[in-house]
């Protein structure tokens, strides 16, 4: 399957994608644990059905040492015993921040307070931006039908 847009051959798309990658790099530099960032990116991508991002984030997480058990259980994290309370709080915030159409209030006060018990303001900022950025990138990839399966770990992290 070919993508509708080649982000790197199209100058307009390339300019925008470079900017998005810069935002992603800035988020990765914030003090939110790398494992949490990958779990959140993966969960948001699963909810949105973005195969290209699921491919990327499972491979990057595995290359960084994440276990296959945890990666395989992200989709059913509520019933899994392999995630910390902090990771569970991040995953809940990611889900509510992604499923805004399903809940009139978006992220509930309870979910925000639970996340704030585990993360400071800088880390909460990273979580909010990560969830928002992943939702945007998921939509870009879905609309343009970016194929999945050939991603190599670290491919876009220049």
TrEMBL record:
It holds the Pfam family CMD. InterPro entries: AhpD-like, AhpD_core, CMD-like. GO terms for molecular function: peroxiredoxin activity. Residues 21-95 form the Carboxymuconolactone decarboxylase-like domain. Gene3D superfamilies: AhpD-like. NCBIfam families: ahpD_dom. This is Carboxymuconolactone decarboxylase-like domain-containing protein. It comes from Streptomyces aurantiacus JA 4570.
């Amino acid at each position: 399957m070919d993508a509708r847009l080649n982000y790197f051959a199209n100058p307009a798309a390339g300019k925008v994608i470079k900017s998005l990658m810069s935002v992603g790099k800035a988020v990765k530099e914030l003090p939110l644990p790398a494992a949490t960032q990958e779990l959140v990116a993966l969960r948001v991508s699963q909810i949105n059905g973005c195969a290209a991002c699921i491919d990327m984030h499972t491979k990057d997480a595995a290359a960084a040492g994440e276990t296959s058990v945890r990666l395989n259980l992200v989709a059913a994290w509520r019933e899994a015993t392999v995630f910390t309370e902090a990771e569970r709080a991040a995953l809940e915030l990611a889900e509510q921040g992604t499923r805004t159409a399903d809940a009139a209030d978006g992220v509930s006060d309870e979910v925000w307070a639970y996340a704030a018990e585990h993360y400071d303001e800088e880390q909460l900022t990273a979580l909010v931006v990560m969830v928002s950025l992943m939702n945007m990138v998921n939509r870009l990839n879905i609309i343009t039908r970016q194929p999945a399966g050939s991603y190599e770990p670290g491919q876009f992290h220049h």
